[in-house]
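Customer escalation, tier 2.

The customer says the design service returned an amino acid string that "doesn't look like it belongs to this structure." They asked us to rerun it and document both sides in this ticket. The original structure tokens are below, unchanged.
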């Protein structure tokens, strides 16, 4: 079966993005505390710059598709994972914080197993974070990701999924995930594209059958 890393175009919608400068860390934390159950807007804080993003429908749909894909593949491959979604990850000492579109503990799952709260000053960061890019961001998200030790970032603009693996203080593109090697950029792009044309039961079945075939090949 052929695979492509380029998905069909998303619907004509972009995220709403507001950037505030010279915002103190204390102000950022107060905004977070004001509504702990808030999902919108998502906040990214990078050393005084605060970005607020209100997600579009294509943004959320594509993020959930990728999240479902990870669940299915990990389950069939027998890999324990822990999804922590759009958890707010922040470090006062670095003056950085972010809320990913999805995040997973895979290699480090055992280290946080059973923990209800993750403290990045003592716990590892998630092994994979997903960053949807439906609008132009003022903040270079890779800097806070690298600064907070995120090993792997998936970036999706609605057309292309890029896998980036941390190498020192920078990230290098990769053809496959380090955390879940079965998932390549081609597979991510292919199943993202197919999710827009297939009914959901058929899509889940197709992903499951593909993952089983990969497990047989790897065994």
């Amino acid at each position: 079966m052929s695979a492509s890393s380029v998905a069909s175009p998303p619907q004509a919608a972009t995220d709403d993005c507001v950037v505030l400068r010279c915002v103190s860390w204390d102000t950022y934390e107060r905004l977070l505390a004001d509504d702990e159950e808030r999902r919108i807007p998502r906040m990214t804080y990078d050393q005084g710059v605060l970005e607020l993003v209100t997600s579009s429908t294509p943004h959320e749909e594509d993020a959930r598709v990728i999240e479902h894909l990870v669940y299915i593949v990990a389950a069939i491959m027998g890999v324990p994972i822990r999804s922590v979604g759009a958890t707010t990850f922040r470090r006062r000492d670095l003056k950085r914080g972010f809320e990913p579109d999805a995040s997973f503990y895979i290699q480090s799952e055992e280290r946080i197993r059973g923990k209800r709260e993750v403290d990045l000053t003592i716990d590892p960061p998630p092994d994979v974070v997903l960053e949807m890019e439906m609008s132009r961001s003022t903040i270079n998200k890779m800097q806070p990701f690298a600064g907070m030790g995120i090993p792997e970032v998936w970036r999706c603009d609605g057309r292309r999924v890029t896998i980036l693996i941390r190498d020192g203080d920078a990230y290098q593109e990769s053809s496959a995930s380090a955390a879940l090697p079965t998932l390549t950029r081609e597979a991510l792009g292919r199943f993202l594209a197919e999710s827009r044309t297939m009914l959901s039961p058929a899509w889940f079945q197709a992903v499951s059958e593909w993952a089983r075939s990969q497990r047989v090949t790897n065994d």
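Tier 2 assessment: The sequence is consistent with the input. The chain has six helices and eleven strands. The mean pLDDT is 89. Sent an explanation to the customer and offered a walkthrough call.
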